[in-house]
Amino acid sequence: MAAPVLILEETDSTNAEARRRAEAGEAGPLWIAARRQTAGRGRRGRAWDSRDGNLATTLLLTLNRTPAEAAQLTFAAALAVADLLDRYVPPALVSIKWPNDVLLDGRKSSGILIESGPAPSGGLWLAVGVGVNLSHAPEGTERPTTCIAEHLHHDVAAAPSMEEGARALAETFDAWLERWTRLGFQPVLDAWVARTPGLFGPCTARLSHETLSGIADGVEADGALRLKLPDGSLRVISAGDVFFGEAA
Ligand SMILES: O=C(O)CCCC[C@@H]1SC[C@@H]2NC(=O)N[C@@H]21
Predict the structure, then answer these.
(1) Which letter does DSSP use for residue 160 in this model?
(2) Which fold has domain 5-195?
(3) What gap in Å lies between CA 34 and CA 46, rounded to an integer?
(4) If you average pLDDT over residues 103-107, what whole number do you get?
(5) Where does 12-54 show beta strands of DSSP type E?
(6) Does ligand 1 come within 6 angstroms of the Cβ of 111?
(7) What torsion, rounded to 10 degrees, do the Cα atoms 234, 240, 243, 247 define?
(8) Where is the BPL/LPL catalytic domain (predicted)?
């Protein structure tokens, strides 16, 4: 069954709220959604703009897994967001970009930030933070963004409210969490690959200290991206900003 959803009027960041609760001994599972975040966090230290009407939510849960195993849930989260989008927009417009950006008509429409730490009573706490542009797309971002409201399926009247989106995501994520728990990572990775174009083509990866261009060569068993460089060597990339169809 999907974890309960707590709706806050305002918080700094739902991930920060999940972390505070986890460090105080709360185990979850609990989704913490907020109408407004005053200090929303993105990947690689970036800020995440989430104004009223968009979804900002974090699942707090505790697992008896290693951090590497827990990191597999980033792929489950991307699939859950894609399933959420499928409910409102034509599914052909929805795709995933490695590792967990869910695109709508090729533009960023959501973001996922997973954080973890040791739980006070044992195990690992995990904060699966998800932002989805439901009603508006932030402007002034480095890459083009869009939102559900701009691409509604012809038989859908309106983009979901934040509350509806939060509950729908709790359901779609629960289905992937259940599959992962019961069947392991492989079926999750297979489903993720099926929704992720560009895994075998020109690719540029912007890492913390270098930018690499080459040809993507699929993913490793843990989901890390394989990138073949022009000199024939192979780099395995676990984190970074990746742009497909853009080899130098
Ligand atoms: O940079 C990204 O693409 C990841 C963005 C993640 C944003 C979500 S919004 C809910 C949760 N709380 C945060 O502060 N960040 C995540």
Answers:
(1) P
(2) BirA Bifunctional Protein; domain 2 (3.30.930)
(3) 19
(4) 96
(5) 30-37
(6) yes
(7) -40
(8) 1-181
Residue 161 has φ and ψ, to the nearest 5°, of -70, 165
pLDDT in tens, 168-195: 999 999 999 999 999 999 999 999 999 9
Residue 110 near residue 86, CB atoms below 8 Å: no
Which residues are bridge partners to 202 per DSSP? 215
In angstroms, the first-to-last Cα distance of the chain is 47
Backbone angles phi, psi at 90, to 5 degrees: -60, 125
90 close to ligand 1 (CB < 6 Angstrom): no
CATH 3.40.50.300 fits 202-244, yes or no: no
Position 227: which residue type?
A: L
Other C-beta atoms closer than 10 Å to the C-beta of 152 total: 14
- Map residue 119 onto helix, strand or coil: coil
| Spatial distance between the Cα atoms of 163 and 125, rounded to a whole number of angstroms | 24
Q: Is 145 in the pocket of ligand 1 (CB under 6 A)?
A: no
Q: How far is the CA of 109 from the centre of ligand 1 (A)?
A: 12
> Cα of 51 to ligand 1 centre, how many Å?
12
Residue the block writes with tokens 């508006």: 136
Residue keyed to tokens 């967001």: 81
Residue spans per domain, the chain: 5-195, 202-244
Q: What is the pTM of this model?
A: 0.95
Q: What is the pLDDT of residues 124-160, one digit of tens each?
A: 999 999 999 999 998 878 788 999 999 999 999 999 9
Answer whether 228 contacts ligand 1 (Cβ < 6 A): no
DSSP-assigned letter for residue 238 = S
The DSSP string of 77-115 is HHHHHHHHHHTTS-GGGEEEETTTEEEETTEE-EEEEEE
